[in-house]
Amino acid sequence: MSKQDLILLALNPSPILDLMQRALYAAGYEVATAHDRPGLDKSVQQAIPALMIIGETFANQDGFAVSRELLERFPTLPIIFYADKDTTGFAKSVLKNGLSGYLYPPLQMADIVDEVQKSLSRARRLGDWLRREVRRTTSSLEEKANISETERVKLEAIISNIQDGVVVMDKNQHILLINQAVREIFTLGEADFTGKPLGDIITNADLRALLSRSSDSPLKYHEINFDDGRVFNAQYTPIPRIGAAVTMQDISYLKELDRLKSDFIHTVSHDLRSPLTAVLGYTELVERTGPLNQNQQEFLHRLQGSVQHITSLINDLLDLGRLEAGFDTRREVIQLEGVLKYTLDMFDSQIKKKLIELSVDLSPNLQPLRANPIRIRQMLDNLVGNAIKYTPNDGKIRVSIAMQEKQIVLRVQDTGPGIKPEEQGRVFEKFYRATNAPDGVTGSGLGLAIVKSIVDSHQGRVWVESTIGKGSTFVVLLPAQD
Ligand code: ADP
User: Fold this and answer.
1) What separation in Å is there between the alpha carbon of 344 and the centre of ligand 1?
2) Model confidence over 33-59: pLDDT tens digits?
3) pLDDT exceeds 80 at position 328
4) Residue with CA at minimum distance from ligand 1 atom 12
5) How far, in Å, is the centroid of ligand 1 from the Cα of 322?
6) What pLDDT shows up at residue 145?
7) Which CATH number fits domain 254-325: 1.10.4080.10, 1.10.10.10, 3.40.225.10, 1.10.287.130?
């Protein structure tokens, strides 16, 4: 028993009230009496009694009803119920209403103190248990929080020391985490950039372009170029509920290898062209220097065909070299459909020969574009030429040009063999020939590489949509003139 324990009595004035006061005082408790309902509420709220004894009726209200209301607000308050008589069902009501004990006459002082002590010690045990539970739950939560904090620190250490550049941003592209590699790539020093917009901290134009384009539809790869020749491959990955991450790998050495390879191809092609021109010239002279028999004539024609084939391959290679080196700077305002007409005229006889059904669908209000007409013609020749080459006799080819916002969309659709999904991305690589090509269809694997270089140099995009056995559609997006 604690001397500070306050027992609140909610009983109407009566001899039993006096008896309780005396008994509890004598046992060393503090006692307070409530006279009406507002007084009772105030005492419970402010004086925080350790226990309350309530009468069957208090201030003209039912004692059980008042107890229920109080317990709803103060569920741990022990309440003893006093009734003038022990009627059947009385004990049951006490239990049902969640009270902790009951008293009824005849009462001795000791009975009162005894019941109060019992209820108090039960309440204390309950309180101890509650406190223990709360402590246990909080400490296990703390433990969990600690684990996640350690995990966080561990993860941060891994990301910080990783060789690739990593930046994690929130949904507004504000920095959440930036690793050491990124700091070194962009010479950012050691300042704390947390919460700052990434575009403000790193002003590189390629990175900004990546951020603005990828927030709508994430681009898989994007090159970040530096004036000193370094090149990084950047990837934008949306992270659900957090924002996005940009990772960067140094691909300067790969770029350098690619450049060396291109230089080599360019030099070799260039050096091969002159002797080939000589070979072709002499084969033509042979015919003029004397009569040839039929076999000699046929061999000579085959020789000329092969030399022409190699010459066109070399011309393609030189072309590609020039395009990749960025020499394509000629720009004129042209209409794509105007150039398409020349291409279709050129292929007219081939289309008729293969009995291909050609349809052309041009949207009204096609806008012009700023482009090199010769390159655009080359692009169309390659795409339409491939469609004819790979579509079997009696097949269908559909060429359409439409506007999509400020972009011109060209589609060249055929009913050819189609391209396997895993090869669709590779057909734009130099010398790549897919496994679908029907027997007897020859090629160098350079046509689409040239198409891609031309489209790239016009700030456009090209891709293929294809289903094996059904056909392919090559799609080119080119920005319309502003
Ligand atoms: P090629 O000289 O072999 O035609 P391209 O670079 O033009 O070279 O094309 C690369 C490869 O892509 C081709 O070898 C072929 O496998 C595939 N391809 C190109 N166009 C089509 C098409 N319209 N239908 C089916 N496959 C095609």
Assistant:
1) 19
2) 998 999 999 988 888 899 999 999 998
3) no
4) 427
5) 22
6) 66
7) 1.10.287.130
The class that CATH gives domain 6-131 is alpha beta
Q: For the segment 139-176, what is each residue's pLDDT rounded down to a tens digit? A: 777 777 666 777 777 887 888 788 889 999 998 899 98
How far, in whole angstroms, is CA 134 from its chain's centroid?
39
Q: Is the pTM of this model over 0.85?
A: no
> What residues are in contact with ligand 1 under a 6 Å CB criterion?
382, 386-387, 390, 414, 416-417, 419, 427, 432-434, 436-437, 443-449, 472
What confidence score (pLDDT) does residue 151 get?
Answer: 77
Are 251 and 221 within 8 A, CB to CB? no
User: Looking at domain 162-250, which CATH architecture does it have?
Assistant: 2-Layer Sandwich (3.30)
What tokens were used for 449? 């590489």
Please give the mean pLDDT across all residues of the chain.
88
Q: Where are the domains of the chain?
A: 6-131, 162-250, 254-325, 332-479
- Å from CA of 317 to ligand 1 middle: 16
Higher pLDDT, 223 or 342: 342
- Which residue from 313, 323, 390 has its CB within 8 A of the most atoms of ligand 1, so it is best to mutate? 390
Q: What percent of the chain has pLDDT over 70?
A: 97
pLDDT of 10 strictly over 70: yes
Nearest CA to ligand 1 atom 13: 433
Q: In CATH terms, is domain 332-479 a member of 3.40.50.670?
A: no
Q: pLDDT digits over 345-396, tens only?
A: 999 999 999 999 999 999 999 999 999 999 999 999 999 999 999 999 999 9
